[in-house]
Amino acid sequence: MSQGGTTYLPLKVNMAGVIPIIFASSLLLFPVVLAQFAGQGDPDSFLSRLSRFFDPSSAPYLILYALLIVMFTYFYTAVQFNPVEHADNLKKSGGYVPGIRPGQQTALYLNNVLTRITLFGAIFLALVAVVPYIISPALGLGDTILLGGTSMLIVVGVSLDTVRQLESQLMMRNYEGFLKKR
C-alpha cells in the first residue's frame, strides 16, 4: 500500500523461466557426453554404466532431473529477486505491506511469500520437463520428443514478450503528440 492508494507487488509463480530446466539438462548430459568421448568400449566400464544411468528414459534419471529442476528454480529465483532490496525500495517510496513493519520485517515477509510461490513454480517446471519423457514412450513415440514442454514454455514466453513490446510501442505512438516540442 502506498500513500496514493492500494497497489500490488507482482511476484511471478515461475520467476525463473526455463533457466532451471536448461541448467539441469546441461548438468545431466555432461556425463553422457564424457562417456561418448571416451568411447563405448567395454560395456561394464564405469563410463558405460554411467551413460546407462543417465538414459533419459530411466526412472533414476527422471527423478534426478526433476529434483535438479526444483533446486535450480529456488537457486535462480534467489539470485534474481532480492527481498531486502525490494523492501528497501518500498520503504523509500513510502509504500508498505499492511500488517507488516517496513524494512527487515517486510523483507522476511516477501522472502516467505516468494518461497511458497516458488514451490508451485518449481513443481510446474519439473512436470513440464519430465512428463513428455514419460508420455512419449507410452504413446509409442519412442525416445523422440518433437515438441516438449520446455519448447512450449520458450515459445509462449517469447510470444508474450513480443506482444508486450508491441503494446509499449503502440502506447509510445499515443504519447508522441505530448512528447514533441512545438
Automatic annotation (TrEMBL):
Cellular compartments per GO CC: membrane
Lineage top rank: taxon: Bacteria
TM region positions: 12-38, 58-76, 117-139, 145-163
A Pfam match: SecY
Single biological process term from Gene Ontology: protein transport
InterPro entries: SecY/SEC61-alpha, SecY_dom_sf
Keyword set, alphabetical order: Membrane, Transmembrane, Transmembrane helix
Family: Belongs to the SecY/SEC61-alpha family.
Name listed for the protein in its UniProt record: Protein translocase subunit SecY
